[in-house]
Design a protein that fits this description.
The protein is an alpha+beta fold. The chain has 2 domains: 85 residues, Pseudouridine synthase I, catalytic domain, N-terminal subdomain (Alpha-Beta Plaits, 2-Layer Sandwich), CATH 3.30.70.580; 80 residues, 2-Layer Sandwich (Alpha-Beta Plaits). It is built from 4 helices and 13 strands. The model has no long low-confidence stretch (mean pLDDT 91).
Length: 191
Amino acid sequence: MELDGKALRLEETRLTVILNKPKGVMCTAADPEGRPTVMDYVKDLPARVYNVGRLDYDSEGLLVMTNDGELAYRLTHPKFQLGKTYSVVCDGTLTQTQKAALEQGVMLEDGMTSPARVEEVHSLKNGNTAFNITIHEGRNRQVRRMLTAVGHETLMLRRVALGPLHLGGLPSGSHRPLSEAEWAALGDGQE
């Protein structure tokens, strides 16, 4: 569409949803190996959206999908210090010393991590440990690498919250729009 010989760009409606990304899905628009991507789960939306941040192939849970660049910036830039909370199962017993190390920060090959919050630690009947961990950084495979640094393998990793956004009972592979309360908590007047 043109006006006075200049191309016009139609204003696209801002669209944001929370996707419960299943394990075994790539956070990319297309995969050369033909694996499923997050785009396969948002085909029904009326506008193209992009994932804000990533979850690795073996991880699952809350992933924000949006076409709102300003919101994406607010959700990912370190200056906003949004916590990312994960529900984790690791092999064996997470000791108090290992928990304390995670909470103080651990040394990884790319430097020391910021302190994490580790909560709701409980032993499972099979001898493994389940807990929630909240981090404020976004390094590649960070939680998995932190657990490796204290001597554990990550068996399950699910992002359950990103700042004021919560996964709740959203079924795997499903998406939902942000609630008015979530928009308000993000400081955005959108509905």
